[in-house]
């Protein structure tokens, strides 16, 4: 009964705080002010239930701990990205073999995805990724002869929906009838490094390349 009465007294203040800060997340300072407001406006003849007060205090402490953990993770993520960028600069000028590269899609013009095969193969698979590494589209070419090839991508995902303009990456692999697919690689010199958000990309010649598409390093 006491918990029910206490909850009825708390509700108006929760509503006021939520309305005042509509569209924004409440922080620990907001919850502390809310708790103080509850204590100031409680009925002296029917004070706030002790168990509910302790529960709210515990929630406040947990919220503060979560915010502190989030801040530490953000710092670690920034340090990790910076460290990776410094280490990546040591690779500049090295020759690499890559199994994919970046392409720019303007939102309407189809993109030509080029690659070269050196030996006959049953099928060539091309996977297209967005800048976050999510697979957007899978394309295939059956029984290509050795030589230069190109697969046209119209800018749609696997269900046929158009994708937004931006930088995408494609990875090429060959598939035999009873063997695991193997990457089809091209060689180039690592000429630069770019950081986009929390990801690091490499310049190989004029192409932007993901780290995971670098197959060998010489």
- Number of DSSP E strands: 12
Helical percentage? 25-40%
What CATH architecture label of the largest domain applies?
A: Sandwich
What amount of the residues lies in strands? Answer: 25-35%
Span between N and C termini? 75 Å
CATH topology of the largest domain: the name is Immunoglobulin-like
How many whole angstroms does the radius of gyration measure?
Answer: 28 Å
CATH class of the largest domain: Mainly Beta
Which class of secondary structure composition applies to the elements?
alpha+beta
Please summarize the sheet with the most strands: 5 strands, antiparallel
Overall shape: elongated
Oligomer: single chain
Counted up, domains total 2
The largest sheet has its strands arranged as: 11-10-9-1-12
Number of helices: 3
Report mean pLDDT, rounded to a whole number. 76
Question: What features would you describe in this structure?
Answer:
- The chain contains three helices and twelve strands.
- By secondary structure, the chain is an alpha+beta fold.
- The chain has two domains: 88 residues, no CATH class; 123 residues, Immunoglobulin-like.
- Helix 1 crosses helix 2 and helix 2 runs antiparallel to helix 3.
Record keyword descriptors for this entry:
elongated; 218 residues; alpha+beta; 5-stranded antiparallel sheet; 3 helices; single chain; 2 domains; disordered N terminus; Immunoglobulin-like
């Amino acid at each position: 009964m006491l918990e029910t009465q206490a909850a009825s007294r708390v509700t108006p203040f929760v509503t006021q705080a939520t309305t005042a800060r509509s569209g924004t997340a409440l922080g620990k300072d907001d919850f502390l002010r809310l708790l103080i407001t509850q204590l100031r406006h409680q009925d002296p003849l029917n004070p706030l239930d002790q168990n509910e007060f302790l529960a709210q205090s515990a929630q406040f402490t947990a919220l503060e701990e979560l915010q502190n953990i989030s801040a530490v993770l953000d710092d670690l993520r920034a340090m990790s990205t910076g460290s990776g960028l410094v280490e990546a600069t040591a690779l500049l000028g090295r020759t690499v073999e890559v199994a994919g590269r970046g392409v720019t899609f303007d939102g309407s013009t189809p993109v030509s995805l080029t690659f070269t095969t050196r030996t006959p193969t049953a099928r060539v698979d091309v996977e297209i990724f967005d800048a976050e590494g999510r697979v957007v589209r899978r394309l295939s070419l059956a029984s290509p002869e050795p030589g230069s090839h190109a697969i046209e991508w119209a800018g749609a995902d696997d269900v046929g929906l158009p994708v937004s303009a931006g930088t995408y990456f494609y990875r090429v692999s060959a598939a035999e009838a009873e063997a695991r697919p193997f990457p089809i690689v091209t060689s180039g010199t690592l000429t630069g490094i770019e950081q986009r958000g929390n990801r690091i990309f490499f310049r190989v010649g004029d192409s932007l390349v993901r780290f995971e598409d670098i197959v060998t390093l010489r």
